[in-house]
User: Which sequence fits this backbone?
C-alpha cells in the first residue's frame, strides 16, 4: 500500500528538541518533493517546510526558520524534521505530505501521513 | 505572503443540496491552487489540484474553478460523507506556501 508513516512525536519541555521521521512505502520516494504541515489543536493547517526530491533545496515558514531543519535520506525512503528550541506554540499534529507530481514543485499534496502529535509544555 | 480568505466560515446545508465554497487570494496565484477535505481525526485529502483538476479517485460531484485571485469549489449534490472542513492552499507564489482558514460544511 502506498503510504507515509510518521513517528517521533511526543511530549517535550520548552526549549527542548525532537526529531520526527516519515517513512514512505510503495512509491519512488526519491522522485518527489516532500513537505511538513502542522495543525494545532482545533486550528487550521499551517505549512512548516518543504524539501526538493534530491534534498538540494529546502524552504521554511518564518515561524520555524532557524529552529527546524528538514532533511531526507532517499536510500532509506525517509523524511526528517529536526525541531530545536521548541516553544508552546509548536504544539500540533505534524503531518508529512508528498507533492502530487515528480521532479519539481507542484501545487499541492496528494499523499499524507496520519500525523504525529508534538506537545510542548512544562 | 499571500493570504487566502475562505468564505463562508460555515455552510449549513442538507444532503442533496449544492455547496459553493469560495477562496480569495490577496494577490494572483495563477492556477496553483488546491482544495483539501479534512474530517475529524484524519489527514487532509486532496480533492482538486491546479484549480480545476480532480485528484485520483475524487467523485465527479466535486469541481473547482477560477484563476488569479478568485476560486470556487462546488459540490453539486452533497452526500452524507461530504460534511467536513475544506481548505484551499496556494503554491503560486511561495515560500511561504499558505492555506486558507477553512470552510466547515455542516448538516442543516
Assistant:
Amino acid at each position: 500500500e502506498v503510504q507515509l508513516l510518521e513517528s517521533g512525536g511526543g511530549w517535550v519541555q520548552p526549549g527542548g528538541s525532537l526529531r520526527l521521521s516519515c517513512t514512505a512505502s510503495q512509491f519512488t520516494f526519491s522522485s518527489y518533493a516532500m513537505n511538513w504541515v502542522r495543525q494545532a489543536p482545533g486550528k487550521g493547517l499551517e505549512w512548516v517546510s518543504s524539501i526538493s526530491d534530491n534534498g538540494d533545496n529546502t524552504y521554511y515558514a518564518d515561524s520555524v526558520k532557524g529552529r527546524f531543519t528538514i532533511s531526507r535520506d532517499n536510500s532509506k525512503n525517509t523524511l526528517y524534521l529536526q525541531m530545536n528550541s521548541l516553544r508552546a506554540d509548536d504544539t500540533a499534529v505534524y503531518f508529512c505530505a508528498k507533492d502530487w507530481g515528480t521532479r519539481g514543485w507542484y501545487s499541492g499534496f496528494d499523499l499524507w501521513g496520519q500525523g504525529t502529535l508534538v506537545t510542548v509544555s512544562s | 505572503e499571500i493570504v487566502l480568505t475562505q468564505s463562508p466560515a460555515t455552510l449549513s446545508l442538507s444532503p442533496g443540496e449544492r455547496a459553493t465554497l469560495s477562496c480569495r487570494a490577496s494577490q494572483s496565484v495563477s492556477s496553483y491552487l488546491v482544495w483539501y477535505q479534512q474530517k475529524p481525526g484524519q489527514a487532509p485529502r486532496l480533492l482538486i489540484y491546479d484549480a480545476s483538476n480532480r485528484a485520483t479517485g475524487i467523485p465527479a460531484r466535486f469541481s473547482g474553478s477560477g484563476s488569479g485571485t478568485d476560486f470556487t469549489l462546488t459540490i453539486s449534490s452533497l452526500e452524507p460523507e461530504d460534511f467536513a472542513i475544506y481548505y484551499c492552499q496556494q503554491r503560486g507564489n511561495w515560500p511561504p506556501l499558505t492555506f486558507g482558514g477553512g470552510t466547515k460544511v455542516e448538516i442543516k
Remarks:
- Residues 34 and 98 of chain A are 5 Å apart (CA to CA).
- Chain A has a mean pLDDT of 97.
- The radius of gyration of chain A is 14 Å.
